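User: Here's a chain of 701 residues. Predict its fold as tokens.
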Amino acid sequence: MNRLTIQCFEQIRAFCREIKAEISKWVKGYLFHRPAILILAVLVIFLITLSHFSLWPPGPSPFSPDWIDTPLIFTGVVASQPDARPRGTVFVLRMETVEKIGDFGSKKSFNKLVMIQVKGGSPFLAGPHDRLEVIGRIQRRKSVPIPGVFDYQEYLKIQGIEFQIFCSGKSVKNLGPARYFSAKRGGWILHQKVAAIFARHLSSEKAAVLSGLTIGDRPRFHPEIKRIFVESGTMHVLVASGSNVAFVIAMWYLFFRFLFRAPHRWALATAFPWVWTYVFLVGMDPPIFRAGIMATVGLISFIAAREDRPFSALAWAAIAILLIKPTSLFDVGCQMSFATVFGLLYFLPKTQNLLSRVPPVGRWFLFICVTTLSAQIWLLPITAAVFKRFYIVSVAANILVIPLAAGGLAAGVILVVFDFVHRHWMAIPWIIEMVQKGIALYLGFLIELVRFFSNHPGGSFWMKSPSPFWTLGFYLACLSVTGINKSRTARMGIIAAIVFLMFGILSSRPPRIPPGAFSLVWIDTGRTASVLLRTGTGKNFLINPPPLEKEGPFERILQPFFAELGIKKLDAIVQPPDRKAVKIDLKETGTKMLFFPMEKNLKSRPVFIMAPGKNILLAEHLPLKVQKTLLGAKIKNIDIIQARFNPKMKWAPEFSAKFNPALLIETGYVSEKRPCCPPWKTPNAIAIQKAGWHEFKSWTD
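Assistant: Prediction complete.
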């Protein structure tokens, strides 16, 4: 071997020895000297294994099959604060008993969480610690696995919600207080009093914003406020989370130090009661409960002089949360919380040298910029996988809005204190008016700033869920980039990250449709099924869309689904505005569409598609008049028929005799009481509302 070859081998051996030394150092320093990280790793692997093989211990179910779709009487205790919404109120109940109406011997015990959605119900109907009697039907979870769409039923499963009950206010009866959740009851009463103070002194919009900043009330009854915060990427400031708990600790620390001149550790040690008072005030929602656990572990670490081991404290907090609720590992909110904290703990100490060179005037602003950017970088894969929508102005908006929103908690506390003093101790009208006007001015400036970012600069774009290789490469780059100037291992990590990122991008490219072929995709959008027509020329047409409105099925279901398929734009949205017969010729695709007249009592119309090599009939309801029209036309065959094949459907004998489709698409929900009964004997009938979506390809892979 020549000298160059020998030098290459020596370099490789030296690099391998360096990697081995760093791995040994990490194992000894973190896995053995930091047992929390080792315990957390074992616990996470154990929980992932249980979930992957579906080995979770199933709870006992009191229901027999004949109880489904049967009116039942449920008795349970309200387990959390009511969630008031425009269409009603949502209660989460810890169930106690369930029985059939009129069958007193059928009562059974049932210790599970259920969600009660009371149409038109008031949030003052009941609160935590109240026992309710509810008459309703079991609504089992029906997971709709549409790619890219947020699975709400899976979210309820992770939260421990067994099923849902939909009822009216007349079907709910408050039986009085129970023995459980008395601490949550006190937090709910205090929550109501604080919200009432805000509503008494401020306008409705400003009170909604202040309630979101302080006690985590979502602005459900103020669509404009919700819109501007969502479209500016700052909606998270109106949700009680870890930042609120940090502000509570900071406010108490400053107050205690200023008032008593106490040492640092005493000031932090006395913050525990206030942290958990705030957690119960907000309502013990999962985000604020996790923040309370993390704050508690962090305070204990600081008091025990272990503040030099932040990752161990973070690991102990994760262990505590997973032991209390193991399914939190699969909760998106929990993943985002720990990813954000880990990213800040990892990035911020490495930027201290850079920040120390900046003059004190700009150091604080630069620290806010680095913190916001670090949090958004570490959340990018999760944001892309769950929300799929990224607002361009969110980075700049968060840099300005987050520091400004930090004063919301202080403003809320000041208003509550001065209102209490004014009403119960010493009435000084001009002081309360000054406080009220000052807080209103602050909130008005915050709202206008958020409105500016939502209305003027930038916009938003939809993203596809990143592949596992892309996610691995992204986080590998985040871990390696800070040591790229000092460590050869970090530089090799960057190279490996680039390889993973490139492989992830190439492997996630959507398959192309061959020239001359087409694809039809049925998507369940709630009360109807929209159809996506994709052609080999790259054209995309949406047939029978839902209303194109904010927060409607189009934005909640179709847009994320299109992002998952890699569709950046729709060439046409086909939905004639009137009820008359309409012909549409898509010349560039060789496809023609015929929309039949709409019947008076129907919400959708049949459409006949003549695509290259295929004839397709789409209809929720197929009237006899349409069947006779198709029989009179010069049509030899219909390859695909979508309709409601229920027993009430009337079929012309000549229609079922002449056309023998190869594929049937069932539009309606299929059950034992609503079976699928097409006039043809075919194994290809598909229940759209069970599958969520279905794709037909005119070619074979």
